[in-house]
Amino acid sequence: MEKSVETIRGDSEGIAYEFALYRISGTSSEAPSAYIQAALHGDELPGVVAIDALMPKLRKAENEGRVRGNVTIVPRANPIGANQLLFGASQGRFDLGTRVNYNRDFPLLDRPDTALLPGDEVPMSSDRRLKARLLKLSLGHDIVLDLHCDDEGVAYLYVPDELWPAMADCAANMGVDAVILWSGQSGSSFDEASLHPYLKMPRKEARLESRVVTTVEYRGVSDVYATVAEADAQGLYRLLVARGVIEDTWIETQKTFAGVVAPIDHIEMVPAPCAGAILYHVNPGDTVKAGAHIATIVRAAGEDGGRVEVLAPQDGFILTRRSHRATRAGDDLVKLVGVAPSSDARTGALEA
User: Fold this and answer.
1) What's the mean pLDDT when you consider all of the chain?
2) How many other C-beta atoms lie within 10 A of the C-beta of residue 172?
């Protein structure tokens, strides 16, 4: 395993950011290659610890000559966001200089050619420089995994429509609970930018049936535990074995996914009707009926009528909920995967 350090020039003289990059050269030029990154949102750590637990498995496979395809790993993909603090609280989702989400506005290329990406000599902000570098590192890999997490939630994948159901084995082997299918535009997110060049090519040449591109949501931001990280690492390893990147006859892989699968327009982003304290009546992973109590908002503590009930708009599956317990009017409380399209379905990305 070869380690190198990537440097991203900052926006002021004397400022630069670094992140570690690990590469394993596979033994077969015909085997699929894999790229895995975590913490594109700098304060999301479940994917970081999953990669930490995965690395010993990769080193063992390499030492035993079982890594067939090239593997590239970026454990912490966003040193800029990781170093943004406001009054001691991490602010890793948006660049404080440009106010742009770190998982938006990636370059959309017409073909998978790194020469189309801007070089370091081009005058641009450091967050755009980082995005160009990450896309350059990932381009050309058959498997591209972007590890994120939600506020509080189950483990789930965002999968492009064009890659489903061919990616069902990936969801099964990773052990996630749900798959959300999307199409069209998602704000030029990393997964959209990773797939976009191949959608411009003839399908046979693009090899979409064997391509893997997904955003992995590893539960909630606080789900950083050794046992969970080990289970997630085992799922990542099982996926690499199933797809032929790693050879391991001791690993039993899966082909059929039995979890929840729904298009993105089935997601109900249930808003808070008023400001107040949130009392949740459901947990991520629960199945609810239309009209079920999802939450109570304590609008005016101790007053008659000071509580407002929030009800499920349709039958469905609770995918996520907010980790904070204070809400403003209109803030989203939960993502509910409905059995039917939402009457208020959002286009593009669900959240900024």
Assistant:
1) 96
2) 21
CA 95 – CA 79 distance, rounded (Å): 11
What fold, for 2-258?
Answer: Aminopeptidase (3.40.630)
Q: Tell me what pLDDT residue 71 has.
A: 98
- Neighbouring C-alpha atoms within 13 Å toward the C-beta of 339: 8
Q: What is the pLDDT of residue 349?
A: 78
For residues 227 and 145, is the Cβ–Cβ distance under 8 A?
no
The 10s digit of each residue's pLDDT in 305-334 is 999 999 999 999 999 999 999 999 999 999
- Is the pLDDT reported for residue 99 higher than 90? yes
Q: How far is Cα 74 from Cα 35, in angstroms, rounded to an integer? A: 8
User: Do the beta carbons of residue 210 and residue 142 sit within 8 Å?
Assistant: yes
Say if residue 73's pLDDT is above 90.
yes
Cis geometry, peptide bond prior to residue 165 (ω within 30 degrees of 0): yes
CB 78 within 8 A of CB 130: yes
190-226 pLDDT, tens digit per residue, is: 999 999 999 999 988 999 999 999 999 999 999 999 9
| Residue tagged 């063992």 (tokens) | 60
pLDDT of 207 reads 93
| Residues 159 and 171: beta-carbon distance below 8 Å | yes
2-258 and 265-338 in the same fold: no
pTM exceeding the 0.90 threshold for the entire prediction: yes
CB 344 within 8 A of CB 242: no
For residues 9 and 18, give the distance between their C-alpha atoms in angstroms, rounded to a whole number: 9
Which CATH number is correct for 265-338, 3.40.50.1100, 2.60.120.10, 2.40.50.100, 3.10.150.10?
A: 2.40.50.100
Domain boundaries defined on the chain: 2-258, 265-338
